[in-house]
């Protein structure tokens, strides 16, 4: 009798999900891994090799520089759909970056991998909510061009988990905490049922993203302590070295600091 192969460990499954190009299939794979979290092995110390083709992405949307993505008014149906498509694309990229954080870096505590698996599943829910809403408006993910800004920094920081924690969840994703309330205010001015439903979805996303930035901050502080580094001074060095965008206001510090997702002395 031929023995069955051992089940894939969390990091291996996260890599498989990251490589998956079909968005719906990627969502299902992330959810499948999360369902195993109580018993799944993680392979914390395994040296996994990065294959080509990361991340797995569908043929559409067409990817462009952020400077080449046209801006439209949300006061038109197409413009509203384009705005929501941009947020949907951010959430798709966020699934990928959480999966990448879960598989790429060995030697972290078990809680680190489970944290990023949780983030991947919540990002998958955000993507699914936004995509379903787009479909009710007569559009779908892929109908508008998109840019790669969030993944670009993920690729830059692939060799150092400290840089990744500093500059992706705590910097680029944290901008979502700042950008979401003004976006919601604009959508309330639009006032259509589609715009108001988008406000409700963004409430869910904002609630979860506060936790995601807090996770990034927790592991950034953990790594700084482990390496004997000052977190604020180290952030400035990393931001300069990796060319992170300079943070600019308005910063949504009230909710973020109270939830521990940003340091009170946030380096600007």
List strands and helices in order, with pairings.
Layout lengths: L9 H10 L3 H12 L28 E2 L12 H28 L5 H27 L9 E2 L1 H8 L4 H12 L1 H17 L2 H35 L3 H12 L10 H6 L10
Parallel strand pairs: 1-2
Describe the structure in your own words.
The chain has one domain (10-258): Up-down Bundle (Ferritin), CATH 1.20.1260. It is built from ten helices and two strands. The protein has helices at 10-19, 23-34, 77-104, 110-136, 149-156, 161-172, 174-190, 193-227, 231-242, 253-258, and strands at 63-64, 146-147. It has a two-stranded parallel ribbon with strand order 1-2. It starts with 9 loop residues before the first helix and ends in a 10-residue tail after the last helix. The model is unreliable at 256-268 (pLDDT under 50).
Short summary of the structure?
This protein is mainly α.
The dominant shape is: globular
For the record, the CATH class is: Mainly Alpha
Rg calc: 19 Å
Low-confidence stretches: 256-268
Largest sheet: 2 strands, parallel
- Structural class, judged by helices and strands? mainly alpha
Treating each run of at least 4 consecutive H or I residues as one helix, how many helices?
A: 10
Total domain modules: 1
The total of beta strands comes to 2
CATH architecture: Up-down Bundle
Succession of helices and strands: HHEHHEHHHHHH
Helix share bin:
55-70%
Which oligomeric form is depicted? single chain
Please report which band the strand proportion falls in: under 5%, 5-15%, 15-25%, 25-35%, 35-45% or over 45%: under 5%
Roughly how many Å apart are the termini? 63 Å
| Spatial strand arrangement across the major sheet | 1-2
CATH topology: Ferritin
Overall mean pLDDT stands at 87
């Amino acid at each position: 009798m031929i023995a069955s192969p051992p089940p894939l460990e969390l990091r291996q499954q996260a890599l498989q999900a990251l490589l998956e190009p079909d968005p719906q299939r990627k969502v299902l794979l992330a959810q499948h891994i999360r369902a195993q979290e109580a018993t799944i092995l993680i392979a914390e110390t395994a040296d996994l090799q990065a294959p080509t083709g990361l991340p797995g992405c569908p043929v559409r949307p067409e990817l462009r520089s952020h400077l080449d993505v046209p801006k439209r008014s949300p006061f038109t149906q197409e413009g509203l759909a384009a705005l929501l498509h941009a947020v949907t694309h951010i959430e798709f990229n966020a699934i990928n970056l959480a999966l990448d954080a879960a598989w790429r870096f060995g030697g972290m505590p078990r809680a680190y991998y489970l944290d990023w698996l949780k983030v991947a599943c919540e990002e998958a829910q955000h993507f699914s909510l936004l995509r379903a809403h787009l479909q009710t408006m007569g559009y779908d993910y892929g109908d508008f061009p998109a840019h790669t800004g969030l993944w670009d920094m993920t690729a830059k920081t692939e060799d150092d988990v400290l840089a990744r924690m500093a500059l992706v969840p705590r910097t680029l994703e944290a901008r979502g905490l700042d950008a979401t309330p003004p976006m919601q205010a604009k959508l309330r001015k639009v006032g259509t049922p589609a715009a108001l439903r988008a406000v409700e979805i963004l409430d869910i996303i904002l609630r979860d993203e506060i936790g995601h930035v807090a996770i990034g901050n927790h592991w950034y502080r953990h790594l700084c302590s482990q390496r004997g580094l000052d977190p604020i001074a180290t952030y400035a060095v990393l931001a300069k070295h990796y060319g992170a965008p300079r943070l600019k206001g308005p910063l949504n510090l009230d909710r973020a600091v109270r939830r521990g997702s940003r340091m009170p002395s946030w380096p600007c």
